Amino acid sequence: MSAAGTSLPPVGVLGGTFNPVHYGHLRSALELVERLQLQQLRLMPCAVPPHREAPACSAQHRAAMVGLAVAGEPRLICDSRELQRKGKSYTIDSLIELRDELGADPGLCLVMGCDAVLAIDTWHRWRELLDWAHIVVIARPGWHLPQSGTVARWLAGHQLPAAAALDRPAGGIIVEELRPLAISATEIRDLLAAGRSARYLLPEPVLDYIESHQLYQ
Ligand code: ATP
User: Fold this and answer.
1) Of ligand 1's atoms, which has the minimum distance to the CA of residue 28?
2) How far apart are CA 124 and CA 50, in angstroms?
3) Cβ atoms of 182 and 207 closer than 8 Å
4) Model confidence pLDDT, tens digit, residues 151-198
5) Distance 62 CA to ligand 1 centre (A)
6) Which residue of 86, 121, 158, 201 is most buried, as measured by CB atoms within 10 A?
7) Is 1's pLDDT higher than 80?
8) From CA 51, how far away is CA 15, in angstroms rounded?
9) What is the pLDDT of residues 36-86, one digit of tens each?
C-alpha cells in the first residue's frame, strides 16, 4: 500500500446489523460524507454477526430495508457483500475485499459508533483493521469512549485529526462529533413488538416494508 498523498476522495463503510436501519444511522452517515468529503458511504449489513445472536429478521430483509432507506441519496450505498459470503461476517474480510476493489491509494474509512468501539478488542484480527482502513468513531448519545485499558491505549496511539489521517489511505483513528440522535434499532423493535408506532424514527418506505412483511411483531 502506498504511503501518502492520495487525491482520490475517501470511501466510508458503516457495518451493522441494521435491524432495522433508522435515522440515527442515516443522518450520521450523511453528515460524515459531508464532514470528511467522502465520495460515498457504504452501509454494509452483517449477515452472520460474530458477537451477537443472529437476528430473527433475515439478512435479506435487513439489506432490503437499507436499500430502500438510501434510495435517492447517491452518496449512500447499500453494500450487501457480507450476504454473499459463507460463515461469520468478519469486518476484516470485508475491508480486505474493499481495498482490493478500490486499489491501494484511496482512503477507506470504517465508521462505527462509540458503543461498537468499546468492544473492538473482541473483533476477529482487530489490530489489523488499521492496516486496511482508518477507523472513524462517531459519538452516540449515552456512550463514552473508554478512558483506560487496551482499547483506550489503542485509541490514543492512533488518533489523528481528520485532515492528517486522510492524507493516507489507512491507519488513523478519527473521532467525530455529529448530531446526536438517540435512536436505536432495539427501541424500534420494542415499540413495534408492543404494537406502538415507530413513525419518524426511520424512513417511511422502511416502515411500509416492515408492515408488509410483518416483521418485528
Ligand atoms: P441495536 O439496537 O439492535 O443494537 P443499533 O441501533 O445499535 O442496533 P446497529 O446496526 O447495531 O444499530 O449499528 C450499526 C452502527 O451504527 C454501529 O457502529 C452503531 O454504533 C451505529 N449507530 C447505531 N445507532 C446510532 C445512532 N443513533 N447514532 C450514531 N451511530 C449509531
Assistant:
1) 29
2) 9
3) no
4) 999 999 999 999 999 999 999 999 999 999 999 999 999 999 999 999
5) 13
6) 201
7) no
8) 13
9) 999 999 999 999 988 888 899 999 999 999 999 999 999 999 999 999 999
Nearest to 216 by CA among 183, 180, 191, 199: 191
The separation between the first and the last C-alpha atoms of the chain, rounded to the nearest angstrom, is 48
Residue nearest to atom 15 of ligand 1 (CA): 16
The label of the residue with cell 416483521 reads: 215
Letter for the amino acid at 89? S
Cα distance between residue 140 and residue 117, in whole Å:
11
Distance of CA 165 from the midpoint of ligand 1 (Å): 24
Cβ–Cβ < 8 Å for 75, 47: no
Place of cell 469486518: 91
Q: Which of 137, 189, 129, 185 is nearest to 159 (CA)?
A: 137
Q: Is the pTM of this model over 0.90?
A: yes
- Ligand 1 contact via 112 beta carbon (within 6 Å): yes
Which has the closest alpha carbon to 137: 162, 163, 157?
162
CA distances from 6 to 10, 123, 168 (A): 9, 29, 7
Please count the residues of the chain. Answer: 217
Q: What is the pLDDT of residue 3?
A: 45
Q: Which residue has the cell 482512503?
A: 107
Cell (9 digits) for 96: 480486505
Residue carrying the nine cell digits 482502513: 133
Residue that the C-alpha cell 467522502 belongs to? 38
